[in-house]
């Protein structure tokens, strides 16, 4: 079976599949509408499948078209990455790696990894982007990032996950709060306080684990604010809007307006994991895994 499909056919098909409108897709591609229709028809004839159902006022993807849209979009992105890495090699770079991470990973884990890794593997480009857990999953599946650092217990089957840090939670209090490490006996002492917590959208599993801490302490927390940034939590705490619970790796020793009490006696721990797409062919990934 021989196909005469070229890269331009794939780009044209994906444009129409996105817009479901030949004229709009043609305008984005800077070609004529009849020319685009002809290229799509040529692709359909060569494949022997119908990709679109054409009606007077709308265009609908067939089942075959839906399947090709998903598969070709991923494969085209992978091909673009291959070309990009070839260009990096031509420019004297050994490659690049795009990281996604939750804020706590930037305190020590990622900086230490990059400093040590770059000593052994110079001439690499690193792109770093802070984002929530679920946004990282989306971008790993679409190959927009190569490696994520998340606080999740489960990921889609296309991804691999490896725990790299298990740590205690910490209580965050205003510096002037009456409780300290010596007087703190248990979370029950704070049942009348307002709590500022990471938004459940940050990670459902992480939020549920924090709720288990309250369940074991025998009360439901008064939640005054939810946020996705530790800096926002600290700013609210230092201005007496409430107290908080965060992973130990988020301790900010330079912030003199808040204080931290490690919850070392509770059973709940939080895990930071490394996650990646098992189909990602970025050659730098395996070097990172070996290094870690």
UniProtKB/TrEMBL annotation:
GO molecular function: DNA binding; DNA-binding transcription factor activity
Cited PROSITE patterns: HTH_LYSR (PS50931)
Keyword field: DNA-binding, Transcription, Transcription regulation
A matching Pfam family: LysR_substrate
Position of the signal peptide: none
Key word Transcription present: yes
Domain of life: Bacteria
CC annotations in GO: protein-DNA complex
Residues covered by the HTH lysR-type domain: 5-62
Stated family: Belongs to the LysR transcriptional regulatory family.
Matching PANTHER family: HCA OPERON TRANSCRIPTIONAL ACTIVATOR HCAR, TRANSCRIPTIONAL DUAL REGULATOR HCAR-RELATED
Protein name listed in UniProt: LysR family transcriptional regulator
